[in-house]
From TrEMBL:
Belongs to the glycosyl hydrolase 42 family. It comes from the Bacteria. SUPFAM superfamilies: (Trans)glycosidases, Class I glutamine amidotransferase-like. It catalyses: Hydrolysis of terminal non-reducing beta-D-galactose residues in beta-D-galactosides. Keywords: Glycosidase, Hydrolase, Metal-binding, Zinc. Residues 388-593 form the Beta-galactosidase trimerisation domain. The keyword Metal-binding applies. Residues 11-370 form the Glycoside hydrolase family 42 N-terminal domain. It holds the Pfam family Glyco_hydro_42M. This is Beta-galactosidase. Its EC number is 3.2.1.23. It comes from Neobacillus driksii.
Length: 661
């Protein structure tokens, strides 16, 4: 890995006969597929009876693919335990929040924490790794498939026992837990860890601490399961290991990728939601900063199941989706799936070939991606994504807090994506970074929608500010403690003291008629908000109308060489959007952010850096065409012609590569 770009697909040879497999390999070569992912749902084919393993079919497939120039990412099949595991054993199965026990079928029906599941999963992983780990065709591994995609926190007896052990480790004594959670409320007081329930059925809402901590417990346990599989694989194979995840799932991605070798994501965003596609690339690039990420799954045309379907991509979109991924740091662009499934719950899903072996509606677009990959590969391999100057923190732990305290169905993923979209549309090159990210190289840091900020994060952000950075915090950030309770010293705890502000009160501003003025624009304010007492030097945004008239909703506090900006409320509507853009523009200018362009909405610039030169990938994502102003003379790498500085027009679903020396 690392010496070329990959164009791949998920493949399920266990579902097809030898004639079809031969036909598939011929077609893969025609479509420029140079890697496939296999094995992820094939546990029953590999271990048809408990303890009887047969990997010969998969060994032969890997070797046959390799002989034809197609490499393999081998998967562990643990999302789909066979019937011998499930039948007659409800105690091994996943239990949902309402107490329903899952039956066999679909996937993720087992509790991944059950000791017998862990034992059998370790054995199948070891057998696969032993058998295929040294084959030259295996260039990578994928653990399981989409952890916690259909399920979230399991409520079985195994999980209950592990939950109590986890609490003991975390709190040491039940008194500490009672104090941290404030359990005297509603007579929730516990006398032993064994009495602490799971957040299952209840007449009203559970204690916030219980609900959030159970999510964090579940996230930690699935990451431990991933770690265990990786450890087994490494005994038999030196190929790098990943997992195909998403911001949709009930996992902590930062924690999962911590002990894996490269990061991968799955996304099925349709064209009208292309920023949701791009945010994945800007985030996954930062889970493993020194190596390319993989787009492990995206549809060649449309996603579908027995219950739903999405709109097919317009012709031309798939190619620019791939161009954007590679330009933003992807090493691979892969489809789900190669050949349409003839059975099961995803039989209508988009694919490269139909179940009867004919090209599908997305086929021509796959050929375009193959041509694109060949054209841009030398440029991608001689450059790396430019260091962004603006970062937005994304937090799956923050997602857990917001799932517990969602107010009006707030969702961390969609809130951050919406916030991100504004910065994207302003032509600013940006990184989306996990909570633990190194802040070196950034000039502006945004931390929105994270109820709880750790002391460690605040310390790193403070250091970033003292060195000259501008830290913009909020809205809805810092108002809760580590245990998901309200601070009792001041509204935002340690953050408030660091930010040099005084929060007078917090309340929901939606539908309250509150209007705030900042950067010469008045806009309605919404969401749960913090209102600040500030003087003329520190106040940047003032409430003009509403319950807190005359008080501040945006403040500045100088610290060392930089400043902390508190955004206490979310400006809403068209004027709110404009006000937020003005805020972003103002602080980007002040911080001297240079890596930005005047690219029109719907088109992006992905800058890359080479040795003594840079390349702008200018890509139209929305199919409406666009333009950008080139800051200096450049060379169009497709036509090898000199382009003068000034306006450059981009056609519908067009991409250009402009080199600046």
């Amino acid at each position: 890995m690392g010496k070329k770009l990959y164009h791949g697909a998920a493949y399920y040879p266990e579902l097809w006969d030898e004639r079809v497999i031969e036909e598939d390999i011929i077609e893969m070569k025609k479509t420029g597929i140079n890697v496939v992912r296999i094995g992820e749902f094939a546990w029953a084919s590999m271990e048809p009876e408990e303890g009887k393993y047969d990997l010969s079919f998969f060994k032969n497939i890997i070797n046959k693919l390799h002989e034809n120039g197609i490499e393999t990412v081998m998967c562990t099949p643990t999302p789909t335990p066979p019937i011998w595991y499930s039948h007659g054993h409800p105690e091994r199965m996943y239990v949902d929040r309402d107490g329903k026990v899952m039956g066999h079928g679909s996937r993720q029906h087992a509790c991944t924490n059950h000791p017998y599941f862990r034992e059998r999963a370790a054995l199948i992983t070891e057998n696969i790794a032993k058998e295929v780990g040294s084959l030259p065709g295996v260039i990578g591994w994928q653990i399981d498939n989409e952890f916690k995609c259909h399920v979230s926190e399991c409520m079985c007896h195994t999980c209950k026992d592990l939950w109590h052990l986890w609490l003991k480790e975390r709190y040491e004594s039940v008194e500490n837990l009672n104090e941290a959670w404030g359990t005297k409320i509603w007579s929730e007081y516990y006398h032993s860890f064994e009495q602490v329930p799971q957040p299952g059925p209840a007449p009203f809402l559970h204690n916030s601490s219980l609900h959030t901590m159970y999510q964090l417990f579940s996230m930690e346990k699935i990451a431990e399961f991933s770690d265990g599989q990786a450890e087994i694989i490494r005994k038999y194979s030196s190929a790098p290991i990943t997992h195909n995840s998403s911001v949709f799932f009930s996992v902590d991605n930062e924690r999962i990728f911590k002990n894996l070798d490269f990061a991968s994501f799955d996304t099925y965003a349709t064209i009208e939601n292309y920023p949701a596609y791009l945010i994945n690339s800007d985030l996954w690039r930062n889970f493993k900063k020194d190596r390319g990420f993989w787009v492990m799954e995206t549809s060649p045309s449309y996603a579908a199941s027995l219950a739903s379907y999405a709109a097919p991509h317009p012709n031309g979109y798939l190619r620019v989706e791939a161009a954007a991924a590679y330009a933003l740091g992807a090493e691979a662009f892969c489809y789900w799936l190669w050949r349409q499934q003839r059975a099961g719950c995803e039989q209508p899903h988009g694919s490269v070939l139909s179940a009867w072996g004919k090209p599908t509606v997305g086929y021509e677009n796959v050929l375009e991606v193959a041509d694109l990959k060949n054209e841009i590969e030398p440029i991608i391999l001689s450059t790396a994504p430019s260091q962004a100057e603006v970062a937005i923190t994304y937090s799956d732990r923050g997602k857990a807090f917001l799932k517990t305290e969602s107010h009006r169905n707030l969702n961390h993923r969609s809130l951050v994506t919406d916030f991100y979209k504004r910065i994207l549309n302003m032509g600013i090159h940006r990184d989306v970074v996990p909570e633990g990210a190194d802040l070196e190289g950034y000039k502006v840091l945004f931390t929105p929608f994270i109820h709880y900020l750790s002391s460690e994060y605040i310390a790193r952000a403070r250091e970033f500010v003292e060195k000259g950075g501008i830290w913009i915090v909020g809205p809805l950030t810092g108002g809760r403690t580590e245990n998901h309770t309200v601070h009792t010293d001041c509204a935002l705890g340690e953050l408030e003291k660091t930010a040099g502000v005084e929060v007078l009160y917090t309340f929901p501003m939606d539908d309250s008629g509150t209007v705030g003025r900042a950067f010469d624009i008045s806009a309605p304010l919404g969401m749960w908000s913090s209102v600040f007492e500030a003087n003329s030097e520190t106040s940047v945004g003032v409430i003009e109308e509403g319950l807190a008239k005359g008080k501040s909703f945006i403040t500045e506090h100088k610290l060392g060489g930089g400043k902390i900006v508190m955004l206490g409320s979310l400006p809403i509507g068209e004027s709110g959007d404009l006000q937020l853009q003005k805020l972003v523009h103002h602080y980007s200018e002040e911080a001297n952010v240079t890596l930005r362009s005047d690219v029109t909405q719907g088109t992006i610039v992905a800058p890359r850096q080479g040795d003594g030169f840079s390349v702008w990938f200018v890509i139209n994502m929305d199919g409406n065409g666009g333009s950008v102003t080139l800051p200096q003379q450049g060379v169009d790498l497709q036509t090898n012609t000199v382009i003068e500085p000034g306006k450059l027009e981009i056609g519908k679903f067009e991409y250009k590569m402009i080199q600046f020396n």
